[in-house]
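Hi U.,

Before I forget, here's the chain from the pilot set. I'm dumping it here mostly so it's searchable later in email.
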Amino acid sequence: MILEMKVPSPGESITEVEIATWLVEDGDYVEKDQAIAEVDSDKATLELPAEVSGIITLKAEEGDAVEVGAVVCLIDTSAEKPEGDAPAKEEKKEEAPAAEAPKATPEAKTYATGSASPAAKKILAEKGIEASAVSGSGKDGRVTKDDAINAVPSMGTPTGGSRTSTTSKMSMLRRKVAERLVEAKNTTAMLTTFNEVDMSPIFALRSEYKETFKSKHGVGLGFMSFFTLAVVRALKMYPAVNSMISGKEMLSFDFCDISIAVSGPKGLMVPVIRNAENLSFRGVEAEVKRLALRARDGQITVDEMTGGTFTITNGGVFGSMLSTPIINPPQSGILGMHNIVERPVAIDGKVEIRPIMYVALSYDHRIIDGKESVGFLVAVKEALENPTEILMENDIKKALEL
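Structure:
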């Protein structure tokens, strides 16, 4: 019996996928549920498992865009599994290298080769060209006036280095990310406001409690839990930032689904922490770790990256000092975290060295006013600089569940 394997729907609104990589070869015997291909959608890279066991015949090439429901391979279920290892393919014999063609004997040079006539020498001097760099057409290789007139100055210094280039096809995921970034720039009234955060209080808390926190909960006490909970608080204070435009209406949410931008093997992915307003420090850290591992291992699903109401991105892990993050449509706001650098700051009239992070909020000015955007970012700053009081209600052990 021949089974036609069709592309399953990886998620709502996705109509086609791209065959990124075949994990098997034409004619291989595959087991049921064995991963036979990786397919790219516009949201994620997913594995395609074999529906039955048998001999596979591929019907699509790597890089092909195929519609959901299209046949990509055939599996002959009546074929028996081959015993032992398949015979190794016969290696091609290396052909003997062709004999090198005899090198042409260079033309003999004379004292006149590369020398310039007085007129040519004047023209070359005006162009800043050495006579030896011009191929002369005159007798015995002499550089003539015409040679000098036609000579073009070198536009760069030859280094002898490689001058090759390569072309590779962009994945469907990367192409979709590019389209969404351009869409965000072209369809939103995007502005960015900035502030700075003194990270000393968070450093002190992590230094004192991170080992106890990790030993009890099995996850580290990172920065993302502080930022996520600070953002949740600010979103409740400024609900317009937790809204988006739907046609001619403004759609606001009473929950906080926080998208977190992470770097996966296929590019940027943005999984969502659902109902972050109900999570504790432990809950946020556990969910961040779970989603990051799934993104890294290519196991993230479309559903896990759909429906966020606000995004946090951390360019600081790559060393970014400051940036203007691009809104993740249809959301209306995105918070950019950056690297933490010791900087001199004025504290009570004295200069002190503090670990400072610059933060940026990009927002859609169509529904978020300047007052709300600045107030939101100030609220985030206040919570991060006073975490014990604002985020932990002055009960650190209870907040960290220690």
